[in-house]
Design brief:
This protein has about 290 residues and is of the alpha+beta class. The chain contains 8 helices and 16 strands. A hairpin with a 2-residue loop joins strand 10 and strand 11. Bound molecules: 3-[O-phosphonopyridoxyl]--amino-benzoic acid.
């Protein structure tokens, strides 16, 4: 069945959901996006995702023509219009149609669209058996270029890193910053366990301030497991006892090998299993009701 897409304030059939070839989102990757999950008819961490969207837009001087509440409502409306209960939302804001040439001030109005569908990032067996990662040569952008916090429509660094990982036979790749310290994976944040403590790269080291990452901090507190942000090197990953990733699309997923070094005993860790259980419980029991829009 054709999906209903929210496009600039209207719900339209997917074959009518079109943007201009002059849209700077397409011509220059000039725009921002969010990926959001909904579970059992409730949108997970909706407010946080929309706040991050507004922050990304502000950072690139893209003036949102909708309020925070209108954007939240558009997500719920799109899910409801498609009769979906569990799935994934892709929310995209583009600079809008303009002339050929970089100048964003020649674009009249930003365009926004919302797609509610499903996503499977990794095959189910990897949640039980774990992922093998490789380190990529493509670096996270530095703070001296566009901030790596901006979820912009230009994801080519991450796409190229993902290609490197896939070509090496791995499902996911570790991205380093210019100093050679660990930042994150191509679409997920990374965590290690060592001596009973969870450690994750700092935002200032190039990690995205992930919304699922923030949930991991909350769950660590609930589970009574100490957790800190630290500058991490590949050595720290290789010598960790457990490793796992978090992200909206991936949720939480275990890692059992990095650059051919087994992590711990090469099996899915017991601490990870506690996080997975707590995460699944949380996603099933909290969120903004779709019907409440
Ligand atoms: N790092 C990066 C670079 C991301 O893009 C995350 C971490 C996790 O953040 P959240 O807030 O989702 O916990 C992301 C977001 C994909 C895909 O298709 C992945 C993301 C976004 C869009 C697409 O793999 N992850």
């Amino acid at each position: 069945m054709a999906l209903k897409i929210w496009l600039d304030g209207k719900l339209v059939d997917e074959d009518e959901a079109k943007v201009s070839v002059f849209d700077h989102g397409l011509l220059y990757g000039d725009g921002v996006f969010e990926g959001i999950r909904f579970y059992s008819g409730r949108v997970f961490r909706l407010e946080e995702h929309i706040s991050r969207l507004f922050d990304s837009a502000k950072a690139i001087l893209l003036k949102m023509p909708w309020t925070h509440k209108e954007v939240c409502d558009s997500v719920c409306e799109t899910i409801a219009a498609n009769g979906l209960v569990d799935g994934y939302v892709r929310l995209v804001v583009t600079r809008g149609a303009g002339g050929l040439g970089l100048n964003p001030y020649l674009c009249e109005t930003p365009s926004m669209f919302v797609i509610a569908s499903s996503i499977t990032l990794y095959p189910e067996e990897h949640y039980a058996n774990g992922l093998s990662l490789v380190t990529c040569s493509t670096r996270r952008p530095t703070h001296g270029s566009l901030s790596p916090q901006v979820k912009s429509l230009n994801y080519l660094n991450n796409v190229m890193a993902k290609v490197e990982a896939l070509k090496a036979g791995a499902m996911e790749g570790v991205m380093l910053n210019e100093q050679g310290c660990v930042a994150e994976c191509t679409g997920d944040n990374l965590f290690i366990l060592k001596n009973g403590k969870i450690r994750t790269p700092r935002i200032s080291d190039g990690a995205l301030d992930g919304i699922t990452r923030a949930v991991i901090f909350e769950l660590a507190e609930e589970l009574g497991i100490p957790m800190t942000e630290e500058t991490l090197t590949r050595y720290d990953l290789y010598t960790s006892e457990e490793c796992f990733l978090s992200g909206t699309a991936a949720e939480v997923i275990p890692v059992v090998a990095i650059d051919e070094r087994p992590i711990g005993d090469g099996q899915v860790g017991e601490t990870f299993k506690k996080f997975l259980e707590a995460f699944r419980k949380l996603t099933q029991s909290t969120g903004t009701p779709v019907g409440g829009a």
